[in-house]
Q: What sequence folds into this?
């Protein structure tokens, strides 16, 4: 379970991105974080990825306080979560296979096991046939799916995605969101930041609404119209 | 991906045995070594320039070391006879010369004493080019008895200086010629030269370190995006740094080989003129090259320097990136 308890984040310069935010996401749930630009969606995900640290409050996952993780422990924490970005963050000089394999290489997984897991992840996102290609030869949607395969290949307990469909057409966006839904079904906790309200409505999942860093609504799946 | 739940798995630390983790770590080392070599090959001009600058910087102290070594050998060859020549006054007879030789031979710093008669001196002079005619014009032999004192090899410079002073004050002695003095001066000069080489080598090693450091800094700056991705997907600094450390090692190793090659080339270039010089001194000079251990040590030390330069810069750069 992810818990945010009175979490605030104030950047240098005084801008308060999050203000006394409290909510919980049970293990295996999928939730959308939405709000206008600057509402604090990305900051919330950055706090979970330990890219930023909160100014106040406590974030914990399964009872483990993230604030207790020292700087040297950040890589290990990041190996336990999967992150998907709007701009994919793929290494363009490495093949699709090598990109997806990256978290497993970092995690010291044996070569044979790596090959098995990478192909399984690529099959899941429908890109097994592209494993030897460079990301530049793929479409934006395919590149995003490579990014998702990379995020899930190490079988993380938590998957966070920051505007993963921002550059995609509605049909592709729906496919990508469907993938996240599938990961939730196998027990992964999924948090997706998105401002695409029509898409969020179609997914019928829990929605956390932020406005100027404050929690203004927390809608259960059945409340989303 | 097979429908396995993420929570059904134990953490990665427990999932893999230490042996498998070690194998994976070794695999990443191999990958890093090969990848860094490929990156060097991908921009040949830049890599060659870096290697050439480092190689020249490392070859310079080697060349000086070679030069000093040969000057030392030259000194050894010329200074083999460190005898102290004691010229007796012309009125001293053979008996006095023998008595004085016995007295000086008893001193602890003297290994041997030989007596050169005036006739032997005249014969030597007659053999020397240009002097035979002049010798024939002489009526009486004007040369005195000469004692050749051979100092002990373990005699200190101070003891020898005292010996010379003592002999000079003797009544029967006209002149003392200490051929060991120039040798001492040469030794002192070589000592200064060795120190200069050491300082120069240290400065040029620092320069080589900075060259590698700057090259790696530029390399890291051009790959900041990749480094950002690696850090985001959970790579530790050691993982990210590894290919750059190998790049430093490659730069050092190749420049070390280049430096050794240049030093050997200089040695070959010097061989002929030194051989000519040797012939002029009756073949007493032996051309000396760099010892094989040094030629082997240079690439290894250079690789260490490259690693150190890359280590310092990458630590600083990655701290900024993180």
A:
């Amino acid at each position: 379970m992810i818990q945010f308890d009175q979490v605030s984040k104030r950047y240098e310069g005084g801008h308060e991105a999050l203000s006394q935010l409290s909510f919980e996401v049970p293990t295996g749930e999928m939730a959308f974080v939405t709000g206008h630009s600057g509402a604090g969606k990305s900051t919330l995900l950055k706090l979970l990825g330990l890219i930023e640290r909160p100014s106040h409050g406590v974030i914990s996952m399964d009872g483990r306080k993230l604030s207790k993780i020292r700087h040297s422990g950040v890589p290990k924490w990041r190996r336990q979560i999967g992150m998907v970005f709007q701009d994919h963050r793929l290494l363009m000089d490495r093949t699709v296979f090598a990109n997806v394999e990256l978290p497993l290489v970092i995690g010291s997984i044996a070569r044979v096991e790596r090959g098995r897991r990478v192909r399984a992840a690529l099959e899941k996102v429908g890109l097994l046939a592209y494993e030897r290609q460079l990301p530049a030869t793929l479409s934006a949607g395919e590149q995003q799916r490579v990014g998702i395969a990379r995020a899930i290949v190490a079988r993380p307990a938590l998957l966070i995605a920051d505007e993963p469909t921002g550059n995609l057409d509605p049909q592709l966006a729906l496919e990508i969101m469907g993938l996240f839904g599938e990961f939730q079904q196998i027990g992964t906790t999924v948090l997706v930041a998105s401002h695409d309200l029509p898409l969020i409505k179609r997914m019928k999942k829990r929605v956390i609404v932020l406005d100027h860093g404050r929690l203004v609504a927390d809608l259960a799946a059945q409340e989303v119209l | 991906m097979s429908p396995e739940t993420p929570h059904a798995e134990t953490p990665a630390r427990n999932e893999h045995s230490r042996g498998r983790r070690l194998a994976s770590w070794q695999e990443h080392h191999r990958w890093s070594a090969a990848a860094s070599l490929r990156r060097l090959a991908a921009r040949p001009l830049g890599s060659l320039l870096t290697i050439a600058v480092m190689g020249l910087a490392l070859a310079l102290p080697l060349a000086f070391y070679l030069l000093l070594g040969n000057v030392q050998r030259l000194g050894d060859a010329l200074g083999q006879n460190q005898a102290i020549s004691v010229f007796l006054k012309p009125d001293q007879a053979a008996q006095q010369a023998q008595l004085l030789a016995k007295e000086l031979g008893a001193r602890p710093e003297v290994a041997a004493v030989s007596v050169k008669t005036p006739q032997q001196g005249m014969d030597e002079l007659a053999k020397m080019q240009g002097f035979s005619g002049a010798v024939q014009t002489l009526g009486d032999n004007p040369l005195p008895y000469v004692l050749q004192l051979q100092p002990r090899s373990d005699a200190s410079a101070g003891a020898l200086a005292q010996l010379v002073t003592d002999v000079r004050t003797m009544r029967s002695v006209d002149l003392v010629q200490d051929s060991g003095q120039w040798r001492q001066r040469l030794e002192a000069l070589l000592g200064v030269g060795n120190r200069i080489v050491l300082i120069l080598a240290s400065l040029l090693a620092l320069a080589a370190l900075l060259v590698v450091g700057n090259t790696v800094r530029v390399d890291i700056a051009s790959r900041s995006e990749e480094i950002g991705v690696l850090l985001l997907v959970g790579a530790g600094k050691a993982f990210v740094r590894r290919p750059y450390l190998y790049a430093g090692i490659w730069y050092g190793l190749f420049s070390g080989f280049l430096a050794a090659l240049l030093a050997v080339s200089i040695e070959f270039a010097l061989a002929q003129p030194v051989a000519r010089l040797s012939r002029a001194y009756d073949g007493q000079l032996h051309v000396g090259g760099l010892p094989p251990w040094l030629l082997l040590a240079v690439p290894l030390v250079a690789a260490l320097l490259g690693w150190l330069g890359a280590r310092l810069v990458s630590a600083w750069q990655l701290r900024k990136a993180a």
Summary: Chain B touches chain A at residues 1-9, 11-12, 16, 20-21, 23-25, 27-28, 31, 226, 228-237, 239, 322 (CB under 8 Å). DSSP finds eleven helices and four strands in chain B.
